[in-house]
Design brief:
By secondary structure, the chain is an alpha/beta fold. The chain is built from nine helices and seven strands; from the N terminus they run E-H-H-E-H-E-H-E-H-E-H-H-E-H-H-E. The chain has a seven-stranded parallel β-sheet with strand order 3-2-1-4-5-6-7, with helices on both faces. Helix 2 packs across helix 9. The longest helix is centred in the middle third of the chain and has 28 residues.
Length: 294
């Protein structure tokens, strides 16, 4: 029950529409990015009111259609916009409050990657682009979520009660960095320094917000996925029958020797949002198949 908000719900994770025919085919074959899977997981868990956003209207429409296939009566508020734009964020959350009156669960999932280069080679424009979405976007959205949650009543009573819960999607690379992994071996277009720093910033923001808002009955946690089979990890030149072939060395380096699946990350989001995780506060919850402990 309750009202859920999921950013990055289209599940593609790029700033511009995908025009490469090869990559476009892979993306739709593996559409379930973390945001897409999370929105579906909330509806499957019984959430009948949900607000979703993504910068790409086409993929967001696909997510909305999938949600209606799960529950034809689900109430959906959807808007396509850039989460780094404060005016758009303000309008989105104003509409959520007007339509639903509250926010019980928020998953800040919108994120991007960029071109592979070292910090000394990184342009300021590239640095700003990735941090504007991965860090600024999380800040802008969580700020509005907290403002709304602080004003609303508790959904339940008892020692597990909460006014709301926020899960910010960070990354294992916000906790443990291996430069060769993120700048060379992964093969995806990834700005190592800026990406890792942006995800570390999300973890820091999460911890501070958790401390500051515990007194309001609001829980804020970060989820740090490892390598997950999403469109974000598919290279334009990847073979159609094995789009994640370039990631095999990193997959083999983890104890579980496999990629995570979007639905596995989504289920953790639902758990962390629920009262079953009522004593979890300010955590950086790692879901990476054991990679960072290996």
């Amino acid at each position: 029950n309750g009202v859920a908000v999921v950013t990055g719900a289209g599940g593609v994770g790029r700033l511009t529409p995908i025009t490469d025919p090869c990559l476009h085919a892979h993306t739709h074959a593996h559409l379930a990015g973390i945001g897409n899977a999370t929105a579906k997981a909330f509806v499957k868990a019984g959430c009948s009111r949900i607000a979703i956003t993504d910068i790409q209207a086409e993929s967001l429409n696909t997510t909305a259609q999938q949600l209606r296939e799960i529950n034809p009566s689900v109430e959906i508020l959807q808007q396509a916009f850039d989460v780094s734009n404060p005016t758009s964020v303000e309008a989105f959350f104003n509409e959520i409050k007007a339509k639903f009156g509250r926010i019980d669960y928020a998953i800040n999932c919108a994120g991007i990657i960029g071109q592979a280069c070292t910090s000394s080679e990184l342009s300021l424009d590239e640095f700003d682009k990735i941090n504007s979405v991965n860090y600024r976007g999380v800040f802008l959205c969580s700020k509005k979520e907290l403002e709304i949650m602080k004003e609303q009543d508790y959904a339940t009573e008892g020692h597990r009660r909460q006014r709301g819960s926020i899960v910010n999607i960070a990354s294992q690379l916000g906790l443990a960095v291996e430069p060769m992994l993120v700048s060379l071996d992964m093969g995806v277009e990834l700005i190592a320094a800026a990406y890792c720093a942006s995800k570390s910033a999300v973890i820091g923001l999460t911890r501070c917000d958790a401390i500051d808002h515990s007194k309001y009955g609001i829980r804020i946690n970060a989820l740090c996925p490892g390598i997950v089979a999403t469109p974000l990890c598919i290279r334009p030149d990847a073979p159609a029958d094995d789009p994640y072939a370039h990631l095999k060395p990193e997959i083999e380096a983890s104890p579980m020797k496999r990629m995570g699946q979007p639905d596995e990350i989504a289920d953790i989001c639902v758990f962390l949002s629920s009262e079953k995780a009522s004593f979890v506060q300010g955590a950086a919850w790692v879901a990476d198949g054991g990679y960072i402990i290996a």
